[in-house]
C-alpha cells in the first residue's frame, strides 16, 4: 500500500527530527568537554527540550492517523521523557555533575526511545503495508 502524502511527510519529518535530536545531544556533549559557557549549554538543552516536544507531537499525530494500538503507552513515555528532561534542565548549573547527569539522561532516553520504541512504530507501519 502506498503511503499517502500526509503520512509520508510526517514520517520524513520524524526522521529529520531524529537526526537533529542526535546532533543537539552531540553538541551538548562537545560543549561540556570543551568547557563552553554555561549559557550556551543551557540554550542547547532548551533547544533539545523544544525539539523533543515537537518530535513527540509529530509522532503522536502519525500514530493517531494510523490508529496505532500502542498510542496511549507511547504518549505516556513521551510525557515521562519530557518531564525528566525538564527536571534535568531546571537543576542545570555550571558544574560537571549536573552536566554529566543531563548527558547521561539524554543518552538513555534518546537512544532507548529511538532504537526501541520508534523501531516498534516503524515495524508497525511496515507490517500494515505502508511503503515510503
TrEMBL record:
Keywords: Iron, Metal-binding, Oxygen transport, Transport
This protein's name: Hemerythrin family protein
Family matches, as PROSITE patterns: HEMERYTHRINS
Record has Transcription as a keyword: no
Organism for this UniProt entry: Carboxylicivirga marina
Keyword Cell membrane: no
Record-linked InterPro entries: Haemerythrin_Fe_BS, Hemerythrin, Hemerythrin-like_sf, Hemerythrin_metal-bd
Family: Belongs to the hemerythrin family.
Lineage: Bacteria, Pseudomonadati, Bacteroidota, Bacteroidia, Marinilabiliales
Domain of life: Bacteria
Amino acid at each position: 500500500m502506498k503511503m499517502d502524502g500526509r503520512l509520508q511527510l510526517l514520517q520524513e519529518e520524524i526522521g529529520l527530527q531524529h537526526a537533529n535530536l542526535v546532533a543537539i545531544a552531540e553538541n551538548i556533549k562537545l560543549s561540556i568537554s570543551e568547557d563552553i559557557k554555561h549559557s550556551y549549554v543551557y540554550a542547547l538543552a532548551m533547544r533539545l527540550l523544544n525539539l523533543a516536544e515537537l518530535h513527540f507531537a509529530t509522532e503522536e499525530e502519525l500514530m493517531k492517523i494510523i490508529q496505532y494500538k500502542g498510542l496511549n503507552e507511547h504518549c505516556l513515555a513521551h510525557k515521562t521523557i519530557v518531564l525528566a528532561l525538564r527536571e534535568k534542565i531546571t537543576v542545570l548549573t555550571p558544574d560537571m555533575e549536573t552536566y554529566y547527569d543531563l548527558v547521561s539522561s539524554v543518552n538513555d532516553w534518546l537512544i532507548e526511545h529511538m532504537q526501541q520504541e520508534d523501531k516498534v512504530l516503524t515495524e508497525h507501519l511496515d507490517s500494515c503495508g505502508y511503503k515510503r
